[in-house]
Design goal:
The chain is of the alpha/beta class. It has one domain: Rossmann fold. The protein contains seven helices and four strands. A four-stranded parallel sheet has the order 1-2-3-4, sandwiched between helices. Helix 2 packs across helix 3. It is globular and about 45 Å long. 33% of the residues are buried.
């Protein structure tokens, strides 16, 4: 049994274990003199990046490539098993979903790269993330928090242009 299945079967969450672990890594980087902190991730790493950025105020910018997953769409509309990493027992029963959590990132910066042909992240999930972040951004009076990069024909593949754009976003944001 892998660690993800083991934690989930015991009512625990790999997502929050990663937040804990990555927050300790940020503390070490700050102790070593890091002035700014950003994160980048693709697929499951993207999920880790946006969860960490939402939970840890020390993350000043997050570049997330693919895997914008809402539980309500994933489990009830599309019946997808794209990534179970982000499942937290009791979250849905509490009426909380990831687009709401990610909206906690502003006024810090977030870059989202998405492919229109990505079957693991259908457009309604991606758009609900975008809308939640924009709603929060408007509510708190923050501007320029969200940078979008869309490739309509992309099916979950990092392109060099996408990666270069993500790195440029991080350089400018940190």
């Amino acid at each position: 049994m892998n660690i993800q299945n083991e934690l989930t079967s015991k009512g625990r969450s790999l997502a929050w274990k990663s937040v804990w672990d990555n927050s300790r890594a940020i503390e070490v980087l700050k102790t070593l003199g890091a002035e700014t902190t950003g994160v980048i991730g693709w697929s499951g790493g993207s999920t880790q990046a946006y969860i960490l950025a939402a939970a840890n105020q020390k993350v000043e910018a997050a570049a997330c490539l693919f895997s914008f997953l809402t539980l309500r769409h994933q489990f009830y509309r599309y019946r997808l098993y794209h990534c179970f990493y982000h499942f937290i027992p009791g979250m849905m029963q509490a009426g909380i979903d990831w687009d709401q959590v990610v909206s906690l990132i502003p006024p810090r910066k977030i870059f989202m790269a998405w492919g229109g042909a990505d079957k693991g992240t259908p457009e309604p999930m991606y758009r609900s993330f975008v809308q939640s972040i924009r709603n929060r951004q408007n509510r708190i009076g923050a501007t320029d928090c969200l940078t979008l990069y869309e490739e309509p024909e992309n099916n979950h593949e990092i392109t060099m242009e996408m990666l270069d754009t993500a790195f440029e976003f991080l350089r400018e944001s940190l």
